[in-house]
Amino acid sequence: MTDKKIEQTIDDGATTMRELTKELKVGSQCGKCCGCTKKILNRKLIEIADITDQVA
Question: Where does the BFD-like [2Fe-2S]-binding domain start and stop, copy by copy (predicted)?
């Protein structure tokens, strides 16, 4: 799994770890990638919120 794939899935509408797990099978094996994935998700959601605030 790459950061870019995770970011693309978030850009395509995923907003929760559950959705990322469903789409990408993140954490379905050993779970080591969950911490990193959560950081990417949080960063992207903050970016989306900032962009939304600037547009509104």
Answer: 2-42
